[in-house]
């Protein structure tokens, strides 16, 4: 109970709410939800088209086709999802360059190019933010703060790296997230604990981290410095032999390290339905048991089956109701910041 109260007080101070949210308000909200409604809040689901969910997920990732429809004013994302008692987060990857979900509107430069363009840096970031806000986006899965030195590494090959200097990554990322917060857009830093010089894309198959121990240590320092500025941290789908035999998203020791640094940040997985994760159901279960709070699913057809599985595991006591509640508290507090789901009395 003391931990929950501390968690709430800390989060409220971060977001500077103008009124108090009592622990009883949150627990009452959770108690009023069915098991399926509770576990549904733990998912961030790719949404290829306009969808009326029977049980709303915690977050949605609209497809480029859907975003085009929103841009042409044929569909209103915010209005559509406001009908749910607890609206979902609406998130996209919007880094720029090769990860530009808004490329049909404007060819934004890569985040590394934005970092180097000191004169126009704030203007470019703000133009992305304004565009996301106008479409109803309130979560950006960015910045990618991985420290990578080799040109052919996955991070540098896809032009997702900010800099090769840890202090520069930290300083830029803080400015980047501060600009997002002005428009009430939350950020997810990734890919914890760092992709390093790894060549392969872990969406295709799970591979081992490549890079020096010092490089990994520096990346851990980068993440530790930025966790308090971020709302989410995305775990990598890589193995880190010096830290654990398991991939980061199912490693209890790696996830526990995040929580020891910041108890309010939402720990999310990368796509649990990627080709690298042969069994999304087992990946979901092991990630939850490791301590992850939210799970990205880029195959929307799996969402109802994954939630059904979690309900079965809860009833069998294979996963804990208390752990679901801990994740829900963090999620609901951030949704309160965005949506004011707890009305002032």
Model description:
The chain is α/β, with parallel strands linked by helices. Helices cover 43% and strands 11% of the residues. The protein has 14 helices and ten strands. It has helices at 2-15, 23-31, 35-40, 64-71, 77-81, 111-116, 121-135, 154-157, 166-181, 213-226, 252-261, 280-290, 303-315, 321-339, and strands at 43-47, 59-62, 89-92, 94-96, 99-100, 139-140, 186-192, 232-235, 266-268, 295-297. The strands form two sheets. An eight-stranded parallel sheet has the order 9-8-7-6-3-2-1-10. Strands 4-5 form a two-stranded antiparallel ribbon. Strand 8 (232-235), helix 11 and strand 9 form a beta-alpha-beta unit. The chain is globular. The model is unreliable at 1-14 (pLDDT under 50).
Give the topology.
Elements: H1 2-15, H2 23-31, H3 35-40, E1 43-47, E2 59-62, H4 64-71, H5 77-81, E3 89-92, E4 94-96, E5 99-100, H6 111-116, H7 121-135, E6 139-140, H8 154-157, H9 166-181, E7 186-192, H10 213-226, E8 232-235, H11 252-261, E9 266-268, H12 280-290, E10 295-297, H13 303-315, H14 321-339
Parallel strand pairs: 1-2, 1-10, 2-3, 3-6, 6-7, 7-8, 8-9
Antiparallel strand pairs: 4-5
Helix pairs in contact: 1-14, 9-10
Describe the structure concisely for a colleague.
The chain has 345 residues and is α/β, with parallel strands linked by helices.
Helical content stands at 40-55%
Distance between the amino and carboxyl termini: 23 Å
**Can you give the mean pLDDT?**
93
Look at the helices and sheets and give the structural class.
Answer: alpha/beta
Which shape, going by the Cα principal axes?
globular
State which percent range the strand residues make up. 5-15%
Rg from C-alpha positions? 19 Å
Low-confidence stretches: 1-14
Order of strands, main sheet, comes to 9-8-7-6-3-2-1-10
């Amino acid at each position: 109970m003391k931990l929950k109260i501390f968690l709430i007080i800390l989060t409220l101070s971060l977001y500077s709410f103008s009124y108090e949210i009592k622990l009883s308000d949150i627990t009452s909200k959770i108690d009023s939800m069915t098991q399926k409604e509770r576990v549904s809040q733990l998912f961030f689901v790719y949404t290829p088209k306009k969808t009326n969910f029977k049980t709303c997920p915690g977050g949605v990732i609209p497809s480029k086709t859907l975003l085009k429809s929103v841009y042409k004013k044929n569909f209103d994302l915010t209005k559509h999802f406001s009908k749910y008692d607890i609206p979902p987060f609406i998130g996209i990857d919007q880094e720029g360059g090769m990860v530009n979900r808004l490329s049909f509107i404007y060819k934004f430069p890569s985040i590394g190019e934005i970092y180097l363009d000191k004169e126009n840096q704030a203007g470019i970031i703000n133009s992305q933010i304004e565009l996301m806000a106008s479409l109803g986006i309130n979560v950006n899965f960015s910045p990618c703060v991985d420290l990578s030195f080799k040109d052919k590494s996955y991070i540098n090959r896809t032009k997702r790296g900010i800099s090769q200097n840890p202090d520069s990554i930290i300083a830029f990322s803080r400015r980047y997230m501060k600009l997002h917060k002005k428009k009430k857009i939350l950020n997810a830093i990734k890919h914890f604990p760092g992709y390093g010089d790894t060549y392969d894309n872990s969406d295709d198959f799970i591979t081992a981290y490549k890079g020096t121990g010092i490089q990994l240590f520096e990346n851990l320092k980068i993440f530790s410095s930025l966790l308090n500025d971020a709302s989410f941290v995305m775990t990598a789908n890589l193995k880190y032999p010096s830290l654990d035999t398991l991939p980061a998203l199912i490693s209890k020791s790696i996830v526990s390290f995040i929580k020891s640094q910041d108890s309010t940040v939402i720990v999310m997985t990368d796509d649990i339905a990627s080709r690298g994760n042969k069994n999304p159901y087992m990946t979901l279960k092991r990630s939850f048991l490791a301590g992850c709070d939210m799970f990205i699913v880029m195959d929307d057809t799996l969402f109802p089956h994954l939630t059904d599985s979690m309900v079965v595991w809860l009833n069998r006591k294979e996963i804990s109701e208390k752990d679901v509640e801990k994740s829900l508290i963090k999620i609901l507090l951030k949704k309160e910041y965005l949506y004011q789901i707890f009305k002032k009395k």
